[in-house]
Amino acid sequence: MTAEVRRGTLRAFDGGTYRATVQLDGSLAVWIESVPVARNLPSAELVAGRSVAVLFWDASNPGDAVVVAVWA
Amino acid sequence: MGRYRRQALRYRNARLYDDGRRALGRPARQQRLGQPRAWSYSTSSLSGVALHAGFDYYLLVTGVGSDGHAHVWTVVYGDGGDFGVGAWSGLVETARGYSGSQVTFGGPSLALPDTLRLGFSERYAGSVAYDRPLVSFAPAFADFWQGLWREPAPPFDVSSAHGLALSSGGGWLWATNAAHLWRTSLSIPPLDVSADLTALNIEVAPERGRLTLTLRNDHGRYTSPGSGDLAVWTPGAQVEVGLGYRISAGVETVLLPHFWLDGWEHLYGNGAASVVISASDGWGLLETWRARRSCVWAAGASTASQVLTFLLARAGLSLSTLSASAAFVNESPAFVVHAGQSGAEAVRDLLARFADLLFFRQEGATMKEPTAGEATTYTYGVAHSLRGIRLLTGLPEATRLQAFGAGVMAEALDWGLATSADDRLRQVLDRNLTTSGQVQARATLELERRRRAVAEGSILIAPQPAQELYDVIALTHAGLALSNARKRVRGWRLTYQTGKRPAYDQTFVLGAV
Questions:
Q1: Are B140 and B318 in contact (CB under 8 A)?
Q2: β-strand pairing of B7-11 with B14-18
Q3: Which of B331, B336, B439 to substitute to test the interface with A, most A CBs within 10 Å?
Q4: How far is B352 from chain A (nearest CA, A)?
Q5: Closest to A32 (Cβ–Cβ): which among B294, B333, B335?
Q6: What is the ipTM of this complex?
Q7: Which of B197, B193, B292, B271 is nearest to B233 (CA)?
Q8: Taking CB atoms and an 8 Å limit, are A32 and B96 in contact across chains?
Q9: Band (B19; pLDDT cuts 50, 70, 90)
């Protein structure tokens, strides 16, 4: 199981569950839902349309990933 | 209902139509049309319905689901085939465009000229916008209700908001839109190159299969592939190889796994002319296919077997099963294939979690679960003599395996080697594993996989074309004190050569059973 980091665009954020919907680069039509977001990222910064970095601890397991950075 | 009939189709006295949100049907076997039987699915709006009458009524539907996303679905309206009369199958998603992605679908079409084929239009309203008709076909042996399709792709350079209407007749597949009509032949004759074959090399290994064949071209017959008699000779064309022997009863051959053309080179020099053709097996098709979106399966959504079947279908390959582990059939791990990732990589990632092995037969993939008690398929060294043998002894990568899941851990040890070898520890981390039974099974299979991966040598024989990758064979050799020693075929190479140094040999790479 290889870890990898992928860049994407934040499409939605749920402050209650602290999970996000992310459009990973290269995926025009389909997004990944319910990705956990690092709690050290302030919810005010998690604005739809911003760029995010998603760390996949296991590159093929969407349930083993976390949004670790937000910018732009 | 007339005011709702935006789109209605009549076929064999059945009526299927949508009222803007639902598909409704009246079975053919109802002599008098009664109340329409609506499906139970909740959708926001439908933009198109296509119908083909097979064993049941097959529908391709485009629209927006209750989740707000654009979809292309397949669904079956029963006519007594796989589904009862008037019954609806489940909706199976063929394509999806998230709300806000600016991707929508329309213009569905279905036809059965040879195998089931579909078409629809994908519209992207972002920058740079397009209206792109896409077509696809179902791999051999796939049933419509399974929703298995090769990756939909543009058939040629055309923009059409309403897709292409597909139909067949007169040996042609026809495609139409409002302004144009296209056709392509459904029966391009195969090209037999047997008489000009001067060399053939095939190498089949786990997760890789390659073929090169050399044809004499001093007569110039193969100078212009893709045209005239060579119309079928194009990149991606299927190559079928039958190998065997000329015996007293005639010629007996076995059809090998199919290959698909990667390319070729023309050679001229030293008074000779030839063409060398290169091709790859199903792994090559999987390597070529790239995901064009994130393909996500949540935990519990689909079994590993179903995910594999989907991935193979996207590359145009079918799947059959000789045997399968309970885990492969029953477990439903969370799994994702990222955009840009190859099908080969995705299949490798998926199968890494299971003991099951994949190899190719003709145009489809086959699965088997390797077991210690698997029957021997053939014996070498007695009636079928050995031309050469090489035996290797080595240690596996791991003699101790630890599997870590979500809050659980287990390990497996090879006690037979633990006393003579170093403590060769390897660890596997997989958060899909949540029970002690799962981590124990994973640790055991990972240790077993590494034991089987140890190279144990090879044999050189007169070709046995019926022998397949991962078969169990027996070896007898007096000089090496082998008597029906069981080995597993971990790969094979075959060489055929005419001319001054003729050859017809096969080498099997061996591993532990």
A1: yes
A2: antiparallel
A3: B336
A4: 9
A5: B294
A6: 0.96
A7: B193
A8: no
A9: low
Cβ of B337 within 8 Å of Cβ of A27? The answer is: no
Helix (H) or strand (E) holding B351, with range, is helix B343-351
Q: Is the omega angle on the peptide bond into residue B408 within 30 degrees of 0, that is, cis?
A: no
Polymer length of chain B: 513
Nearest to B430 among A26, A33, A58 (CB): A58
Distance CA A57, CA B25 (A): 48
Environment class of residue B496 by beta-carbon count within 10 Å: exposed (0-12), middle (13-18) or buried (19+)? Answer: buried
* Degrees, nearest 5: CA angle B169-B174-B176: 135
Q: According to the model, what pLDDT value does residue B27 have?
A: 54
Choose among A2, A22, A26, A19: nearest CA to A11: A22
Q: What would the pLDDT profile of B383-434 be if each residue is shown by its tens digit?
A: 999 999 999 999 999 999 999 999 999 999 999 887 777 889 999 999 999 9
pLDDT band at B6 (very low <50, low <70, confident <90, very high): very low
3-state secondary structure B32-85: CCCCCEECCCCEEEEEEEEEEECCCEEEEEEEEECCCCEEEEEEEECCCCCCCC
Find tokens 């029963």 and name the residue: B78
Closest by CA to B461, choosing from B496, B501, B412, B507, is B507
∠ CA B81-B82-B84, nearest 5°, is 75
For the question of whether the overall pTM of this predicted structure is more than 0.95, the answer is no
- Give the total residue count for chain A: 72
Residue to mutate among B71, B296, B429, with most A CBs inside 10 A, is: B296
Q: Please answer yes or no on whether A29 and B95 come within 8 Å at the CB atom.
A: yes
Task: Render the burial of B27-62: b for 16+ CB within 10 Å, e for the rest.
Answer: bbeeeeeeebbebebebbebbbbbbbbeebbbbbbb
